[in-house]
Amino acid sequence: MFLMESFFIFFMFLFGLIIGSFLNCLIWRLYKEETVLGRSYCPKCGQELKWYDNIPVLSFIFLKGRCRFCNDKISWQYPLVEIITGLLFAFSYYFSLQNGLSFLELFFYFFVISLSVIIFVFDLRWYLIPVWVVIIGGILIISLNIFFGASILNILLSMLIGSSFFGLQYLITRGKGIGEGDIWLGALFGAIFPDIKLLILSIFLTYIIGGLVAMVLIIFKIRKIGSRLPLGIFLSLSLLIVLFFGKEIVDWYFSLIF
Ligand SMILES: [Zn+2]
User: How many DSSP H helices and E strands does the chain contain?
Assistant: First the structure.
């Protein structure tokens, strides 16, 4: 039984590598506003890639991180996104075994992970939130959560709280420090967490992580005080933490109070 489980966890890692590779491609094409269909190509020289140059992680190693045609460096983003997605998928599967999740619930985890990878990379590279991904992803998330038994009213309320939290900041700071995209992300978080306690935790953690990262960057003089950090990267990190450990953190917190 143990061997079987390990095999499936490894299989999910490989599956995650492939999805990670797809996410890399999707991120680039969304940014360039191209169709998602069509063969992969080198972003530098435009040469279409052979299938064997498209194998997650392995191709990067064999090509020593350079394009076969123009010898231009391939971004570390590609293998990193693949490996991280692989690890997160493997962990989700392990988590689903531990918690007795259904196949559809596991799919929900895979989907939220994919969304947060897209948001993370997009905001880190271009200071942008891909709003259409958030909207289309949000609709699927809402449908799944209704299917899992969440009430529509709870979902809408949570979405309202999430979006108005960032919306108010947007109004107060007049769009400095917070972008329109973050308001959409607030709504997405509400859709993912109809349980308002989890929503609040996810927002709270975003600022804790953001504060810690900013402190480290300032101490090591990588960034100056007052320089802008993309909020979306902290939101996506917080999203993953709350997705897996949110219930336990909330229970632990309330056990401290009462
Ligand atoms: Zn090239």
Answer: 9, 0
